[in-house]
Amino acid sequence: MKRRLFSVFICALVPLFLISCGTSESSEKDDNTLYVYNWGEYIDPEVLSMFTEETGIDIVYDEYETNEIMYPKIEAGAVNYDLVCPSDYMISKMIENDLLQEIDMEKIENRANIGEDYWKNSEEFDPGNKYSVPYVWGTVGILYNKTMVKEKVDSWGILWDEKYKDEILMQDSVRDAFMVAEKYLGYSVNSTDEDELQAAKELLQQQKHLVQAYVVDQVRDKMIGNEAALGVIYSGEAIYTQRENPDLEYVIPKEGTNVWIDSWVIPKNAKHKENAEKFIDFLCRPDISYMNFDYITYSTPNIPARELIEDEDIRNSPIAFPVLSDYSLEAYTCLGEKADRHLNALWREVKSY
Amino acid sequence: MNNRNNRFLAAPYLIWSAGFIIIPLVMVLYYAFTDFNGSFTVSNVTAIISYVNIKALMLSIAFSLAATFMCLIIAYPLCLILTTVIKNSSSFLSLIFILPMWMNSLLRTYAWQNILERKGVINGILAFLNLPLFYIINKPPAILLGMIYDFLPFMVLPVYNSVSRIDKDLLNAARDLGADPFETFLRVIWPLSLPGVISGITMVFVPSLTTFVISDILGGGKILLIGNVIEQLFTQDSDWNAGAGLSAILMVFIVISMFITAKYDREDIK
After folding, report:
1. For a disulfide at A92, which of A334, A336, B237, B247, Cβ 3.0-4.6 Å?
2. How far is it, in rounded angstroms, from Cα A168 to Cα A154?
3. Which residue of B has its CA nearest to A72?
4. Could A166 and B19 be called an inter-chain contact, meaning their C-beta atoms sit closer than 8 Å?
5. Does the residue A25 lie in any domain?
6. What is the bridge-based pairing of β-strands A100-101 and A257-267?
7. Which chain A residue shows the shortest CA-CA distance from B230?
8. Is A219 helix (H, G, I), strand (E, B) or coil?
């Protein structure tokens, strides 16, 4: 009897212990800090220390790999992040589910540095530009190795060419993979039409025996290492990969592609809203924005920062700064949870095919 | 007095098993049998009956059976050789099998990716020697290789333990009574080593059945095991209920495998 009591006591003790650990941590540091949650390798680390030096605000910095990994953490509110950098469609999902608070734009004095076009594009997922400040943007396209692919690459169709069996790297992220098939078929990247989705799924299944691997970040390293001839990749990685391997070339296929913006947002449960706004303002400064561009090579929406780029080829690069009207580009919108899960299930059907 | 001290010493274990085994298990079962609103449902569990999920489960079982079998085929002769031929075999064993385990298994799996890649270490050497290249990366053999490599120590250690404990006098006695080496093995060594073999089988089969990392890294995301399906349900769909439902199914298979091995174990003792 006594023994049983003892174990009951222990069982009750464990959660209590865990809870107390959780609360003491968050209540302890309420001073001058800023909790930032950003994509992996998405900022020049020097920028973080410069900000701390200039303002005296300590930054606690965490990273994530995909929007889908970030979302549940913000939703659960386990850590009170003050600043997150999701993509367009995820921002609209967060606004819809009331997870964000409005940014006081008056405090972002450098906001005028962000090009007018990007504010306008942001209206698609953030009407009135209330919740988000653009950070970087880009397209999705094909990176190919000129020594392995001799023909002209201008269509998604090359990813279905039997010649390149085992030479193709596809994105292992649901929306990007389906985007490729949908664009090739001439559909919208935000289609929820069952017939269109089934057609896209079947196309991806037909492609599977040609694909060397489904990967996300590894497309970059594998292409640099000449592991494959063709890979689907974000435009921001293109300049970096070309620096490492000059045989690589990036194209936006003629059928069109996805154009995306990653923007800073402040979650509802943020505890240091003013620090977050100071940091956004800091990042909008041309010199800081330029430092980040030079480090991560993702296109910056910051106009004066672009002028600071010394290398003319990069400043006018059609990869980093394409003339948007030349291409048929489409942003992702939030499809809703039910459609998301349906798409995920279709993607599993492709991968188990 | 003594008794009470013992109980006190068991407290860390009790805390551990309550916090990290029992509570999570109960939570998995709770999520498995409830829907998003928290009301009872069996749809998460019956979701296993779909082409994708059944195929993933069958593939997982096939891969783990193959990996377990291969581990046994490799480990058993190795342990026999180690115990009979090499004098200080336990330190040799720890050198080649325990030392690699100090490294993170994820790193070791990534290392295999680099070794097997088309421009990887092996193909680099083969190309230098003008030999035909070999491609198993992103194909089923690479996954099997990864499983065997990652889980082989879990087979070697228990088998080695039971083989090395066999009394040499028993072997001498068998020889005196006219048994040839094969008969000695079949009627003395094998039955006595069986407990080690059985725990080895469980310790390889269970992690192979549940892995999703090896199939992701070495299979190029082209082969979907049940572990991958569950992982995606949790991370991409953030549908904990569906993920927990399939986890519960997987637990049934694990319990069955442990039940079978435990049964053989007990029969052997009799």
Report:
1. A334
2. 15
3. B238
4. no
5. no
6. antiparallel
7. A348
8. helix
| Shared-domain flag, residues A182 and A87 | no
Q: How are beta strands A58-64 and A33-39 bridged, if at all?
A: parallel
Q: Does A18 touch chain B (CB under 8 A)?
A: yes
Per the structure block, which two tokens stand in for B28? 């998995």
Question: Do residue A234 and residue A163 come from a single domain?
Answer: yes
Per-residue confidence band for A68, with pLDDT thresholds at 50, 70 and 90 = confident
**A chain contacts of residue B18, beta-carbon cutoff 8 Å:** 7, 10-11, 14
* Domain contains A100: yes
| CATH number (domain holding residue A218) | 3.40.190.10
Beta bridge partners of B108: none
Q: What is the pLDDT of residues A51-66, one digit of tens each?
A: 999 999 999 999 988 8
Count of domains forming chain A: 2
User: Residues of chain B whose C-beta is under 8 A from some C-beta in A?
Assistant: 7, 11, 14-15, 18-19, 22-23, 51-52, 55-56, 117-119, 135, 138, 220-222, 224, 228-229, 232, 235-239
CATH for the stretch B50-269: 1.10.3720.10
Neighbouring C-alpha atoms within 13 Å toward the C-beta of B6 = 4
Question: What 3-state class would DSSP assign to A190?
Answer: coil
Bridge partners (DSSP) listed for residue A250:
A143
Q: What is the model's pLDDT at position A69?
A: 81
CA angle A35, A41, A42 (to 5 degrees): 65
- Chain pair A-B, CB pairs under 8 angstroms: 70
Neighbour count for residue B129 (Cβ, 10 Å): 7
Measure B97 CA to nearest chain A CA, in Å. 30
Percent of chain A having pLDDT more than 70?
Answer: 92
Please indicate, yes or no, whether residues A255 and A343 belong to a single structural domain of this protein. yes
Give me the interface pTM, i.e. the ipTM.
Answer: 0.87
The pTM (predicted TM-score) of the whole model is 0.85
Cβ contact (<8 Å) for A349 and B232? no
Q: Do A11 and B18 touch (CB under 8 A)?
A: yes
- CA B144 to chain CA centroid, Å, is 12
* A83 and A110 both lie in a single domain: yes
Please report whether residue A9 resides in a domain.
no
DSSP annotation string for A15-38: HHHHHHHHHHHHHH--SSEEEEEE
A212 touches chain B (CB under 8 A): yes
- Give the model confidence (pLDDT) of B155-175 as tens digits: 999 999 999 888 889 989 999
Q: Which of B117, B222, B224 sits opposite A227 (nearest CB)?
A: B117
